[in-house]
Amino acid sequence: MNQFDTYSNYYDNLYQDKDYHGETKFILNAIRKFSRHSGKDILSFGCGTGTYEILLNKKGYTIVGVDLSAKMLEIARDKANQIKAKIDFRQGDVRKFKINKKFDNVLALFNIVGYQNTNNDLENFIKTAGRHLKSGGLFMFDCWYQPAVLKNRPENRQRIIKLSNGHLVKRTTTQILDIEKSLLHITFRLREFNSLKKTPEVKENHPMRFFTLNEIDYFLKKNNFNLRRVCRFKHLNKPISENNWDMFIIAEKL
Ligand SMILES: C[S@@+](CC[C@H](N)C(=O)[O-])C[C@H]1O[C@@H](n2cnc3c(N)ncnc32)[C@H](O)[C@@H]1O
User: Which of 26, 61, 84, 149 could join 56 in a cystine, given CB atoms 3.0 to 4.6 angstroms apart?
Assistant: First the structure.
């Protein structure tokens, strides 16, 4: 069972406030500005429940979405079917995924690179992108920037979310830093309840890596990518800084 399988039932409710529309606009703008191709196809790593992919498909893009979690993909396929969107969602591991096609763009959105905990994982993730991009194609992803994570340490949190069935879910997030390995160990505990009953607690561990720009650049160059832009996520013209965790990378396949 994949770590996201249990979480998947709550995923879209938990991220109902995430600005998928604004972020999709930003991605489209980045493609327009940096792409050397006019082609409109995208391979999307860690597509999850398919929200970005559906929005990009509405804008005329042909999408193949890959994810490890069968449950997340089931939700993605249901959502796409409901609006008759034709999106090719496939189960696979982005560290070794293969499809006999080259794309104009590869995306990995919402910190998919953070799940690549070791240098080996990171390199295989980049190699998969490289195998599937045309020369001049773009690889774009967001991640956490190490100097900012170390300066602005994470805090434990608690949130109550209302589900579409009227029930409530309490999510408790605890976070432990492993500085040596550049990992943040996030534990989510979820409990659904209403006035009559509580369901058993669901617990998930997500070890998420944060990065220096140097290490990302090193593995990109080593695998025939050229860094075209490093900026804040959603802000092509704002530089990364130790005050903001997010870092957005635009790399081009040589
Ligand atoms: C935070 S969710 C993001 C989902 C989606 N991109 C979004 O923004 O809503 C992370 C997703 O990455 C997937 N994932 C993590 N590691 C993966 C890997 N090695 N290969 C494929 N999918 C992976 C998980 O299964 C999960 O669905």
Answer: 61
